Amino acid sequence: MIKPIITSLAGLVFFAGVRAQQSAPLVVSADDIVAEIQPTMYGIFFEDINFAADGGLYAELVKNRSFEFTFPLMGWSQPNSDRHSLNENSGFASVLRSNREHNPHFCRVEVKNDKGYSLINEGFRGMGIKEGETYNLSLMAAKHEGNISRVHFRFVDESGKVLGETSIQPGDGEWKKYKTAIIPTGTAAKAQLKITFEGKGTIDLDMISVFPEETWKNRPNGLRKDLVQLLYDMDPGFLRFPGGCIVEGRTLNERYQWKKTVGPIEDREGMVNRWNMEFEHRLTPDYYQSFGLGFFEYFQLAEDLGAEPLPILSCGIACQFNTGELAPMDELDPYIQDALDLIEFANGPVNSSWGKIRKDMGHPEPFNMKYIGVGNEQWGPEYIKRYKVFEKAIKEKYPDMIIVSGSGPFPDGEYFEYGMKELKKLNAEIIDEHYYRSPEWFRENADRYDSYDRNGPKIFAGEYAAQSVAIASPENRNNWECALSEAAFITGLERNAEVVHLTSYAPLMAHKDGWQWTPDLIWFDNLGSYGTPNYYVQKLFSRNKGTHVVPVRLNGKAITGQGELYATASLDKNTNEIIVKIVNTSGKEKQEKITFRGVSRLADTAKITVLQTGDLAAENSLDHPVSISPKEKSVKAKKDRLDVALQPYSVNVIRVKKR
Question: Domain named Alpha-L-arabinofuranosidase C-terminal: which ranges (predicted)?
Fold first, then answer.
């Protein structure tokens, strides 16, 4: 009988120890600065995947506006035309080629009688139009023969009902640009643009374009206002563009070439989007890039957001998940020149070749670009060889330019280990790491950077997102478990700000009817948009990063999952506040005491912002966009202490001023 009693006493001692450990305070050492938090700590990664550019951020409503798709009339239909019918038809359209170098195709319409020939554009999974708003229409036209006296443009809904119309009177002879506007009398998410003609004859059409007048900053032919607002509200420190795998292309010929995306819109040479046929579960053969959203617009967007521009360029290796085609080492000069010319385009004087192009586009002031990326997520010896050549050429001409390199597509394994080893040998400045893993992985790796060399390369957590099912699965969800797990991981990124200088979730955006990849930070349709729970996690951390990391400990240790809690703390020297971020990943409420050392007295009241739901499978949606969104409350301080209740499955941001 003695042994069981001893065992029970040991158990009592053990559980008492656990209880004492759990009731120990969280200690913030507010007078012990660990590291400066870079302004670039939280940023945005943009890639044209999921119809994020054409059909998304770029507000153009007309798909294949210049008839340059591989199938030139893709996106267009002629419901009452049959060119090959034995019966007399009302007309038909055909696509011809001119001698223009860029965008050489145009549409020739032959109207044969007054039986109602029409040409219809379907938009990007329809066109989102709103009652009472103004939509500016423009086109190039040249009338050749006949008596076509007027061309009508109408928004029609799915039933064919007219929701707004306008018209132009085409002149004879040479190409001429026409502008007009439509103000709809109704709202529709899947409207179409219907073009009809008065009279008979032949007329050529090109660059048929419709933009909402109300764009971001009301720029003509600009960006979709609601989507940019979501980005602006994140207060991002940088904007990485244009990708992603979009940089590499399946082949080198299909890589992203920034020089084709600047200059007059009509001179930009579009191409097939690499994501159009990548995944069998979401084939999108109508996915192309018009490059209306090009490098100038990316730089301009970064400037609008107050973010550092971070362009990524091809290093002469096509996507290694596709062909892995290599540019021979003795043929790298054009790729390197692209990088040097880009720096001149962004920063050069207006009397330089590329600086003049920037000026002519309306921005004589330099964009003050500080970062450039070489390759997206390449791996192996061929990448390292090419990186060395790029680094040498860039540093010789622009020694202050910060170069971002990459450790491959995975956060561990052979590719990663090799890349990190070789880049460290080269004293690389910033290494881009990518993580698409399970929610459990994110929780378990909150201490990933605790042991990284403080004197080694800095880290860019350039692409990450918790995958609720598996990487590239179409069943992945933007649920609360994923967002909560990312928040736990981010505490480790910020706590190690001495090593980690930039971070960004990926991918950024997805059209609900046109996506290829899940999960994504922001979802939208043709009329509305919303931030996911993951978005609100990013926003909370970004807007509450502070300026300097200070320790927050439990029993003398960093808080990396003890009691299912994760935490980081910082000072904001601009506001004289202490910021504590605590993530409670358990299903139980936690009563915690937070003690602040090095502070004689706190302000009487602290503000707590809470992001929480008890349902780990919960999501936001277009119908319920803010189901999971931050809520604010206040708590009384007790001299140098706060007592807080951390709700189950919650992200908590505490801000308190020092007296």
Answer: 462-650
**300-346: pLDDT as tens digits:** 999 999 999 999 999 999 999 999 999 999 999 999 999 999 999 99
pLDDT tens column, 231-258: 999 999 999 999 999 999 999 999 999 9
Gyration radius from the chain CA atoms = 28
Q: Is 68 inside any structural domain?
A: no
Within this chain, do residues 626 and 519 fall inside the same structural domain, yes or no? no
CB hemisphere CA count around 430 (13 angstroms) = 24
Domain C-terminal end among 501, 526, 542: 542
Is the CB of residue 284 less than 8 Å from the CB of residue 276?
yes
Domain-embedded: residue 382? yes
453 and 385 assigned to the same domain: yes
CATH number at residue 358: 3.20.20.80
Residue 88 has pLDDT above 60, yes or no: no
CB 41 within 8 Å of CB 503: yes
Number of H helices, E strands in the chain: 10, 36
Residues 338 and 459 in one domain: yes
Q: Are residues 500 and 635 in the same domain?
A: no
- 400 and 491 in a single domain? The answer is yes
What is the share, in percent, of the chain residues with pLDDT greater than 70?
95
Determine whether 463 is an active site residue: no
DSSP state of 380: S
> CB of 453 within 8 A of CB of 431?
no
Give the pair of three-digit tokens for residue 520: 């994504």
Q: Are residues 479 and 614 in the same domain?
A: no
Q: Which of these is catalytic: 68, 344, 377, 481?
A: 377
The domain of 521 spans 44-49+233-252+297-542
CA nearest 428: which of 493, 340, 501?
Answer: 501
pLDDT at 497: 98
pLDDT for 2 beyond 80: no
CA distance 238 to 202: 50
354 with 488, same domain? yes
Indicate the pTM of the whole model: 0.95
Select the more confidently predicted residue: 101 or 450: 450
Please calculate the CA angle 110-112-117 and round it to the nearest 5 degrees.
Answer: 80
Same domain, residue pair 204 and 311: no
Give domain status of residue 224, yes or no: no
Domain boundary among 526, 542, 558: 542
Strands of the sheet with 509-511, listed across from one edge: 509-511, 522-524, 529-531
Helical pair 333-347 and 295-305, crossing angle rounded to 10 deg: 40
Amino acid in position 650: S
Compute the distance between CA of residue 334 and CA of residue 319 in angstroms, rounded to an integer. 18
